[in-house]
Amino acid sequence: MDPARINPNAEIRPPDTQRRNFLGLATAAIGGLAAMVLAVPGAAFVLTPLRRKGKESGFHSIARLSQLEVGVPRSFAIIEERRDSWVNYPKEPVGSVWLVRQPAGSDPPVIAFQSECPHLGCAINLKADRSGFICPCHTSAFTLEGQPTNHVPPRPMDRLEIETTTGSDPEIRVRFQRFRTAIEEKTPLA
Ligand code: FES
Fold it and tell me: pLDDT of 9-37, one tens digit each?
């Protein structure tokens, strides 16, 4: 029925105007939805470093005590799952540590060292005769306790925190951290 017949003052909108209003509302709704879709990954991107930092500060289960011989250093890879806002990457080695089992009754029972050289970050090796550590890049050398035996490294090898479970064959867990190289102070990287 013609609205003008019911109420002569009623506004009569042409059909085109109504359609334009509908299209305007639909466009605004789609725009809002798109903004939400973009905002969620954006927030995840901002939060990702926090998640990664939390993970890096955690302890890694490395070995059982029975896998180590007293006084014989053994290297273990640190495996981590890398993840960013969009992709979960497969687990891969992100570094390594040296574990040295101590004589019975020692506390801690195992010493853990970061394998990155404090000089410039090359990987530290065990000497062929197992009497200490050596870095192949610029000949930094260390005792089995991580103390320098020449003047190349600016500080001892970087010791890492460990924790052990209880039981007859405790699990060795290491807090994996990296440190700044080429300086005397042991300074964790953020
Ligand atoms: S990086 Fe190890 S001696 Fe230079």
Answer: 555 555 555 555 545 555 555 555 444 44
Cα separation values, 133 from 11, 21, 139, 182, Å: 91, 77, 10, 18
At residue 58, the pLDDT reads 81
Q: Where are the beta strands (DSSP E) in 25-87?
A: 59-64, 74-83
Cβ–ligand 1 distance for 137 under 6 Å, the answer yes
Burial class (CB in 10 A: 0-12, 13-18, 19+), 91: exposed
63 lines ligand 1 (CB under 6 A): no
Architecture of the domain made up of 59-175: 3-layer Sandwich (2.102)
The finding on whether 123 has its CB within 6 A of some atom of ligand 1 is no
Strands (E), 32-137: 59-64, 74-83, 88-101, 110-114, 125-126, 133-134
**Residue 8: pLDDT band by 50, 70, 90 thresholds?**
low
CA distance 110 to 157: 15
